[in-house]
């Protein structure tokens, strides 16, 4: 009888039936979504040791590491075209002459983590050796090099596979990583083929839900729509992955911010894909927003849910660990639209008042329950909403997204007619502005003023004795613009680096949603 059972068990295993369920991952990693940088989006196969080291150093010096961007990940093309005589993967000696162990040591010495790429098939997407059939050998190599993160792709996989085949292939590497004894975060990249949100939480720490992202608005919007409905699968240690960030890779300023905001609200990995060495101040102003990052990294581990969608206007609500709710108002249309919801619809408790903190402009307002904003084309407005709290309106500096400098009364004087410019933020009274109940913007006892009583494009901004005139009425809008008479406060020439230096005078100009017309309270 024992022999019969053994033969039967062998036959069942051979045809792939009744295989035992996959063990849960339970590696204790990625209790919040991973953050970092990956080589693929910008460089594809044009990678080398110098690029990776320069980017690692920049992530430290720019403040990205301290904001949570800790993974430095190699993508495809890091290896030679064939394994060595012992069957091991070999790093390309021309690209990585010091070897991957040394590169990992370099990254670790700077307080960062080292990520690598492979594929669950017989070859990678660029036709380098895959890990299928070599899982334990490759996992051992990764561990010996000090790898902390594996992105595991799906190229070179057999045709005609079922979901069960996918689970088996990806579980093989999961088990191999576990057997090394080294904690390695595991990113499944099967492109959403077999509904990974239904099985991957037991196999990997994150799983791609879509095909590859590209640096255009159509791709961002399409991927958002595929990923937003999968919120129930996300939890600490297991995340839906709508692919890497294209922020700073060619889209416009508002699209970059919308992309970043939507990914944060969906508790997605924040893995930068741009060439950070040439990134603009505006790009870093997006990547480094600690308040939006906090929404993504919230310890409750909930992915935001879409609570309404109509006519290209979406509202997302993400509950946070302290009882607040992050509310995103999203406009997919080609013109500015007003997007609205309520605190009750967002899941907040009944309260006498709610404080709405705009996480980009930093303005705080008080509401009885309405949540509404004019949202730019392809843009978002994100509020952190707290019940039984009110907003504040203290004097604060106003910092520009294109320059990282503050609106400044030149020379810190109190003389009417003094020009208003941008200058390094220093906390002086000449940079401390208050929006008054009369609609003025006031510092040093004077009001921001469109020179000559005009409100025409090109009018320079000065300070003047407050008199209540229309040329002294300014409004900070939810999109971060400051407007007067339909025109925006603009850093002259601020669309180029040369226009963002100390002393450049501000002016009124037609609103264009660019970074040189975007401001936040500090």
From TrEMBL:
Residues 1-24 form the signal peptide. The keyword Hydrolase applies. One of its GO terms (molecular function) is alpha-galactosidase activity. It catalyses: Hydrolysis of terminal, non-reducing alpha-D-galactose residues in alpha-D-galactosides, including galactose oligosaccharides, galactomannans and galactolipids. GO terms for biological process: carbohydrate catabolic process. Keywords: Disulfide bond, Glycosidase, Hydrolase, Signal. The keyword Glycoprotein does not apply. Residues 396-522 form the Ricin B lectin domain. InterPro entries: Aldolase_TIM, GH, Glyco_hydro_27, Glyco_hydro_27/36_CS, Glyco_hydro_b, Melibiase_C, Ricin_B-like_lectins, Ricin_B_lectin. It comes from the Bacteria. Its EC number is 3.2.1.22. Belongs to the glycosyl hydrolase 27 family. This is Alpha-galactosidase. It comes from Amycolatopsis eburnea. The lineage of its organism: Bacteria, Bacillati, Actinomycetota, Actinomycetes, Pseudonocardiales.
């Amino acid at each position: 009888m024992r022999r019969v059972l053994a033969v039967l068990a062998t036959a069942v295993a051979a045809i792939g039936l009744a295989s035992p369920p996959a063990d849960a991952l339970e590696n204790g990693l990625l209790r919040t979504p991973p953050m970092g940088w990956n080589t693929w989006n910008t460089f594809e196969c044009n990678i080398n040791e110098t690029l990776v080291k320069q980017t690692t150093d920049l992530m430290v010096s720019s403040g990205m590491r301290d904001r949570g961007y800790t993974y430095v990940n190699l993508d495809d093309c890091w290896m030679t075209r064939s394994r060595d005589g012992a069957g091991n993967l070999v790093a390309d000696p021309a690209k990585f002459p010091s070897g991957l162990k040394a590169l990992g040591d370099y990254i670790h010495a700077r307080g960062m983590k080292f990520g690598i790429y492979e594929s669950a098939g017989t070859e990678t997407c660029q036709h380098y050796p895959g890990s299928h059939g070599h899982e334990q050998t490759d996992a051992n190599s990764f561990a010996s090099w000090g790898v902390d993160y594996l992105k595991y792709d799906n190229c070179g996989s057999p045709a005609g596979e079922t979901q069960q085949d996918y689970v088996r292939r990806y579980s093989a590497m999961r088990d191999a990583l576990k057997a090394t004894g080294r904690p390695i975060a595991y990113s499944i990249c099967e492109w959403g083929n077999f509904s990974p949100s239904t099985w991957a939480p037991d196999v990997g720490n994150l799983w791609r839900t879509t095909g590859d992202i590209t640096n255009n608005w159509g791709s961002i919007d399409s991927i958002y729509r595929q990923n937003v409905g999968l919120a129930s699968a996300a939890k600490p240690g297991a995340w839906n992955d709508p692919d890497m960030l294209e922020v700073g890779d060619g889209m416009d300023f508002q699209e970059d911010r919308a992309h970043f905001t939507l990914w944060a609200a969906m508790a997605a990995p924040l893995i930068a894909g741009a060439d950070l060495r040439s990134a603009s101040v505006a790009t870093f102003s997006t990547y480094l927003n600690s308040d939006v990052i906090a929404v993504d990294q919230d310890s409750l581990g909930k992915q935001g849910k879409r609570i309404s969608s109509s006519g290209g206007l979406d509202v997302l609500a993400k509950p946070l660990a302290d009882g607040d709710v992050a509310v995103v108002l999203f406009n997919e249309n080609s013109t500015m639209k007003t997007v609205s919801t309520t605190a009750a619809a967002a899941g907040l408790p009944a309260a006498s008042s709610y404080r709405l903190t705009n996480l980009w402009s930093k303005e705080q307002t008080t509401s009885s329950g309405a949540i509404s904003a004019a949202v730019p084309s392809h843009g978002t407005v994100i509020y952190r909403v707290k019940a039984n709290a009110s907003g504040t309106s203290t004097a604060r500096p106003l910092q520009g997204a294109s320059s990282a400098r503050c609106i400044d009364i030149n020379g810190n004087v109190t003389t009417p007619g003094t020009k208003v410019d941008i200058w390094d933020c220093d906390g002086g009274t000449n940079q401390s502005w208050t929006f008054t109940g009369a609609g003025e913007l006031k510092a040093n006892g004077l009001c921001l003023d469109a020179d000559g009583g005009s409100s025409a494009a090109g009018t320079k901004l000065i300070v003047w004795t407050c008199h209540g005139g229309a040329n002294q009425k300014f409004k900070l809008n939810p999109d971060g613009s400051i407007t007067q008479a339909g025109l925006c406060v603009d850093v002259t020439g601020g669309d180029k680096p040369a226009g963002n230096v100390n002393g450049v005078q501000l002016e009124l100009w037609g609103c264009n949603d660019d970074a040189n017309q975007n401001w936040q309270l500090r």
